[in-house]
Amino acid sequence: DGGITQSPKYLFRKEGQNVTLSCEQNLNHDAMYWYRQDPGQGLRLIYYSQIVNDFQKGDIAEGYSVSREKKESFPLTVTSAQKNPTAFYLCASSTRGYEQYFGPGTRLTVT
Amino acid sequence: GQNIDQPTEMTATEGAIVQINCTYQTSGFNGLFWYQQHAGEAPTFLSYNVLDGLEEKGRFSSFLSRSKGYSYLLLKELQMKDSASYLCAVPTDSWGKFQFGAGTQVVVTP
Questions:
Q1: CB–CB of B11/B107 below 8 Å?
Q2: Under an 8 A CB cutoff, do B45 and A101 touch?
């Protein structure tokens, strides 16, 4: 079955720690995206990548970092510089110009 | 960035019809996407309009007017499971980078 996986579903961290969220897809999509969603709000783009070894900042990249070493994988690191990291994080992928498919999401809580 | 407007919330009864409007600034990139998101879950793709007009897919239909920067999603024969947030999304580059609206929460009552 093709799809996008994100792990873990729930993640708890102490303030000041970096944390890496995983995103893997086997849809053979070139483009991958990371979004953040806060309660009652829409999706805000953090980073996106159109090809391997290349990525661009989205609208809210400060305090986050990514890598794209393989086509299938696009991990997101939430660093201690991110002021309000508690949120629902969604990874998506797409073929150029077509609909994005989303993973199940990771709910991060930082205390 | 793109300015996308959707109503915050709409309420309708089971079996009724609801129309969710979405207005946006035309970006030069074609098309508009609609997604459904149930509480606590990821968005799922509903429809894609690339040309003007109405696209029908079962109980759901979507309309686009590119020159007016206007779209709507029509939900017919509402069911309780249709209670969800509906997001419209507009491409902002040729690769498919999107700008999402804030979503419209549809509440279906018995």
A1: yes
A2: yes
